[in-house]
Specification:
The chain has 82 residues and is mainly alpha-helical. 59% of the residues lie in helices and 0% in strands. It has a domain of 39 residues.
Length: 82
């Protein structure tokens, strides 16, 4: 037997709450932490490589600002992952 309209109680019909998380799911320790650690390592390595290339080119009086911009993008991605 269902409750009549307007009575106080738990809803008995649709819409039902979702049974699982939406896009991306709920974060959990495994596998999210190892994957994040790998991406942090890759972004830090890429940022270090591009800053090194920029410094070497700067000493040779070559001003290639694209490597500096890519370094900034790596830092931005690093912050977003963190």
């Amino acid at each position: 037997m269902s409750t009549p309209e307007g009575s106080v109680g738990a809803p008995t019909g649709p819409p039902y709450p979702p049974a699982d998380a939406g896009l991306g799911g709920s974060p959990s320790i495994i596998p999210d932490v190892p994957i994040t650690a790998v991406f942090l390592f890759l972004f830090m390595t890429g940022a270090a490589m591009h800053m090194t290339i920029f410094q070497i080119n700067k000493k040779k009086a070559h001003k290639f600002l694209m490597t500096l911009l890519i370094f900034g993008e790596f830092i931005r991605c690093l912050c977003r992952v963190t």
